[in-house]
Every structure is written in C-alpha cells, then in structure tokens.
Design goal:
Layout: H1 2-12, E1 15-18, H2 45-51, E2 57-60, E3 71-74, E4 86-96, E5 98-100, E6 107-108, E7 113-116, E8 126-128, E9 131-132, E10 134-135, E11 152-156, E12 159-163, E13 175-178, E14 184-190, E15 192-200, E16 205-214, E17 216-219, E18 222-224, E19 229-233, E20 238-242, E21 245-247, E22 252-265, E23 268-270, E24 277-287
Amino acid sequence: MLSAVAMTGLADAREIYVNNRLGDDGRDGFTEKSQGAGGGPVRSLKRALEIAQSGDKITLANTGEPYRESVTLQSKKHSGLGSSAFTIDGQGSILDGRAPVPSLAWEGVNADTFRYRPHKKSHALLYVDGLPADEVKVKKGVAALPKLEAKQWCLFRGHVYFRVEEETALSQYNLEHAALPVGLTLYDVRKVVIVNLIVQGFQLDGINAHDNVFDTQMVGLVSRGNGRAGISVGGASRVRIEACLIGNNGTAQIRTEGFSRTQVINCDLLENPAPKILQEGGKVFVENDEE
C-alpha cells in the first residue's frame, strides 16, 4: 500500500514552466515552448503558483531578465505529495523586489544632497547603479541631519537623503529602492524544495518561512541586499538551508524566531553589514565542511 501511494505521488507530479520574456499567463504552463493555441510557458511565478497542485515542480527560465514579484506558498496546494516534493527550480534566475525611485519624488536639500519620502519607511533601502548604497545609520532622537559622504544615504525624519558626487547630477545615477515586501513567503506547507534562485532587493526578507513550514529545503540559493534578512524562519517551522550564499542584508543574513529549528549546512554567510545569524527565538544548528 505504501509503495502504491508513493507511485501515485510520482505519477501526479507535473512540471510547470515559467518564462518572463516569452511566456503568457493565458497559457497552460505545461510545455517549455509555446504549442498551439494554449500550450506553453506562463509569464509569472504568481500564475504558476495558481496553476500548481501538490507535488508539482515549477521551473523558471533564466532569461537574464529578473522576475519582479512577491509571492506566497501556502497550504496543501503548495506542499509535497507522496514521494514528490513541491519544488521551485530557479535555474539561476533572479527574483527582484526593487523598483526605480521616481525622478519627480526627489527634492533638493542643498547643492549636493537630495531627499524623497518612501511609501514605507521600515527597513528602507537605497540602491545605486545596481548595488546597495552605503547607509549612515541615524540613532533615535538625533536632531540634525548627519554628515553624508558622496554616494551615502540615510533615513532621517521619514525621508531618504542621498548625497551625490561633486559635479555629478542626480539624474546620472540609477537609483532604486526596495519596493516589494518579501520575495517568497512560506506558510503552512510541507515538503518544499527551493533551488538555484537568486533573491534580492526586498524590503523585509528574501525568503520568509513564516510558520508551520516543515520538511523544507533551500539549496544553492543566493539571498542578498534585502532590508531585514536573507532568510527568516519563524513559528514552529523546520527548515534546512544548504550550500547558500547569503550576504549584504540589513539586519541579519539568517534570522530565526518563535519555536523554529533551522539547519545551516555548508553556507557562506557574509557578515556585512549585519551579523550572520540573529536568533530572536528558535534553534539554529550550523555545520560547515571545515568544522
């Protein structure tokens, strides 16, 4: 009987293809290339998750163009089935939460300093020419705008301030901010595998295993430049993070809370600008090759 159940899980598993350049959310998602009137890849990860059933695999085409989405995996629909895990294979694709700061949002403060008011101030981030800009932290109660060097920024009294280089116009910079909250949120799911995905530029976390996330693996991920954590694990979740590169996140590279248990195996955690692991609850077990 157990063998029959396992075979049923394998038989029912499907592969859903996503291509953000050649796909169309009106297609069925079950073939890698367009076929006939309705066959072919969908355009968004959001649509793939709407189509998906337990035990399915979602494969993202690495088109060189980031997927600019914030999505949630939730309940049995996005869990494993039998011997088949529910899988998202990014194939090296980028899931990106950034958006350009509107040029009209900026106002001049003086000859070389400009500011804008972000829609959401918590964990604000500013990116210059594709990279997180150097932030000057402002303590609560400070009355005066701190001194900024060229290409530095700060959050002060509800505004983001940015200083340009000498004889350089603001328009010469590609300025982006973290516009979307979380890249991937997982809630109440079982037996999930996320592999080969780059997650960057989200206001809070690259990936958040919020609660009741069990038997879940994150393998070969890069999570960088997110406002709070690269990966956050909370509630009663049980998560394995393996062979991942996590760095340049605002509060911690990996953050845990609640009664969670997190295994960190052979990961490269870059302690910049925040600590490698921040435990606000939960248990963390770290294992590296050299240990």
